[in-house]
Design brief:
Length: about 400
């Protein structure tokens, strides 16, 4: 029998979770109840809050005695993140569902993120209609709006609860009804792409696929870079074609598509063969043109579309970007290749285009060539634009050489 883990605050929302438990069992599935509440639950759970807190080194009774709700939430959240993956590995459940407001969502989603990709995860939340990146991260959590607060059983909440249970039941209970995927498993390659480096990556992708590799392309929009790094850490990839490192422009200058300070670390740390470049490092990203910070309004701006405005990086900014990339790649303990396209790093950094910048490119390339002191990193300057076929195929072949080596 398939099992659905139901996690939540059984002290304050016990009746609601009992209702959900009944729905799961009505569908012929087993319910595995995990209590994340601080106080005495309405009903006995399979996993108590005491066990959860202990997993993170806390004593829930001592915390309750202090009436420190903030500490209790922290202890339970950390404990869930540690304990839930262990319970999954022990075969206690096949998928997990939870319901809550901001507090309940914060309690359970760290544990969901800690589960492997592909394990069904549904979070019904009052927070689901806004920015959910802090809850979902780079995982495959399904966020479902609760419409009304998870506080009582009524016509609307019952409808939402039923739909959510049907969703998780389908994910968990119907997997055997789909035909097994018997397609040949190919070595996976991760690649980064932006709209302005699409020709390059598509040509490199085709070259690799013709030679027996499967290429997963990540959109370098902050979330894309974070997701790729997370999947590299999980061991999904045989090689990495990180040709579009533009997220560092936003991280350093203050754009809206930064991927955080750990970008470009995963492949190095895990010794995954990689070929890298500086695709789209000519630009910082903002939203609609009227949202560009006032300090940048006199800069070279390009209206990419009604919702995206690009800003040309300066000579000084390119130097800083180059130094940061060199710092990351200098950590490599195995061979990797950096390719520098002398005729432009993006579709609009080319002769006659709005961001054409020989001096900016020179600053970026010089900072990289001076900054990279690691002999494991080969730096090659190519007399091509990044979107030229020759550049793309050189990058792909260099990666194949590294992977085969």
């Amino acid at each position: 029998m398939k099992t659905v883990a139901i996690a939540g605050t059984f002290d304050t929302k016990g009746n609601e979770f009992l209702y959900v438990k009944g729905l799961v069992e009505e569908l012929g599935l087993q319910a595995y109840m995990i209590n994340t509440g601080v106080f005495e639950p309405v009903f006995a759970a399979d996993v108590s809050n005491k066990e959860i807190a202990a997993a993170a080194g806390y004593d829930i009774d001592q915390i309750v005695a202090k009436k420190d709700r903030a500490m209790a939430t922290e202890a339970l959240s950390k404990g869930m993140e540690i304990l839930v993956p262990q319970l999954y590995e022990q075969g206690k459940f096949d998928g997990i569902i939870s319901f809550g407001g901001s507090g309940g969502t914060s309690l359970v989603t760290p544990a969901m993120r800690a589960l492997p990709i592909g394990v069904p995860k549904v979070m019904v939340s009052t927070m689901a209609s806004g920015n959910v990146s802090q809850y979902v991260g780079t995982s495959d959590i399904v966020m479902m709006p609760s419409i009304v607060d998870v506080a009582g059983l009524n016509k609307i909440s019952k409808t939402i609860f039923k739909n959510a249970v049907l969703a998780i039941a389908g994910m968990v209970g119907m997997t055997d009804q789909l035909k097994e995927d018997k397609t040949e498993t190919k070595p996976l390659v991760a690649a980064t792409m932006f709209g302005v480096t699409t020709p390059c990556v598509e040509q490199a992708k085709a070259y690799l696929e013709e030679r027996g590799y499967e290429v997963l392309v990540f959109h370098a929009t902050g979330t894309g870079g974070k997701t790729m790094e997370a999947l590299i850490n999980e061991g999904f990839f045989t090689g990495v074609l990180d040709l579009t490192t533009t997220e560092w422009c936003d991280e350093i200058v203050g754009g809206v598509l930064a991927a955080g300070p750990s970008r470009c670390e995963a492949a190095v740390k895990n010794k995954v063969p990689q070929v890298v470049s500086v695709g789209a490092c000519d630009m910082v990203n903002f939203g609609p043109i009227d949202t560009v910070p006032e300090e940048f309004t006199e800069r070279n701006l390009y209206k990419h579309n009604p919702t995206v405005t690009l800003m040309r990086t300066t000579v000084d900014e390119n130097e800083e970007i180059g130094k940061k990339l060199a710092e990351k790649w200098n950590q490599a303990e195995t061979d990797m290749v950096l390719l520098l396209p002398e005729k432009g790093v993006s579709m609009i950094d080319a002769a006659g285009q709005p961001f054409d910048g020989p001096s900016e490119r020179e600053s970026l390339f010089y900072a990289l060539k001076q900054g990279i002191t690691n002999k494991n990193v080969s730096v090659l300057e190519l007399d091509h634009h990044i979107n030229d076929k020759e550049f793309a195929e050189t990058a792909a072949q260099k990666l194949i050489d590294l992977m085969e080596k």
